[in-house]
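Protocol step 4 of 5: obtain the predicted structure for the target chain.
Materials: sequence only (see below). No template structures provided, no constraints applied. The aim of this step is simply to have a reference model before the mutagenesis design in step 5. Sequence pasted as it appears in the construct record:
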Amino acid sequence: MCKVVHLTSAHPRNDIRIFIKECRTLAAQGYDVTLVVADGKGNAHTDGVAIVDAGHLPGRLNRIFKTTRRVFAQAVALDAAIYQFHDPELIPVGLKLKRLGKTVIFDAHEDTARQLVGKPYFDPLSRRVLPALFSAYERFACARFDGIIAATPSIRDLYLGINPVTVAINNFPILGEFDASVPWSMKRPQVCYVGAISGIRGIRHIVQAATLLKSGARLQLAGQFFDPAAEAHVRAHPGWQRVADLGVLDRAGVRGLLAHSVAGLVTLLPLPNHVDSLPTKMFEYMSAGIPVIASNFPLWREIIEGNGCGICVDPHDAGAIAAAIDYLVAHPDVAQTMGERGRHAVRARYNWAAEARRLTEFYGARSHAKQAIATV
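Step 4 output (structure tokens):
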């Protein structure tokens, strides 16, 4: 049995992509899978996956400089054949594992260099210099890894020029997880947003839109704030009175929230790292059979308007966001039809089953290569 270790210094142990999709898929295919995390919640064994906790240290600098060393120590102790890491700060760990003769895969969730441009805690000079420095280092390192798994086709295309062993494994939903269980007539006059909450993800404009609603709809907000300035702004805004702050929900909670909502919001602002992304929440809304109100990026319009499953708006325009919400609340027949089209699109194309096959094929090729080298 091939031993595989996934490494993360930043993500939770129940991360949708890492644990729920990738680790569980590999375990179901017969791999001996361990996930190393750094959350301070202790070791565990869930759904065929062993979870090893490297311990939690508070603060971004601790995570980058100390937690990564702890994760590396756990990785070495586990002595696996294949390692897959999920955070850019673990690139040095990946290089060390390569020097130990291990097969190493980098799972690129985002275009990190472009993401740095939008970090609110960097000054303008850092936003210009750091992406260039990181890109140079990333090119050096990723050329030496045994493969790159990218979360979107656009990220795949970026890495193909660095490492030809690159494949896109999209964050599409698991079929059946969000199947609608509430008749449309029982829907509540509410829309939802699920995921990380910050200014660059449009929270200011969403809360502003709440003050413009004529339908009486409420916003159900499920997630964690990652932007203190944006959080302070929206909590003091009059529109916050029409917001239900639900915090972070488990998967059952998310399913129930989507089942009772009229639409789901994904109005991220047009930063370089957003316009070509494929947000998990977009496809989960579709899978749940509710319309999507999305930013009018060309790629997103192709998916949403191409499948007739929602409305695309200017994410800076609170009035347009409010109008889209009011329209769907006032026209339940249209909203239901859009939701059914989205669910059909997920069943036909945007689902995890095809991605799982691609993942296991990618791992099969790496495992066979490892075995061939071992027999030489």
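Step 4 remarks: Confidence is low (pLDDT under 50) at residues 372-376. The CA atoms of residues 149 and 194 lie 25 Å apart.
Proceed to step 5.
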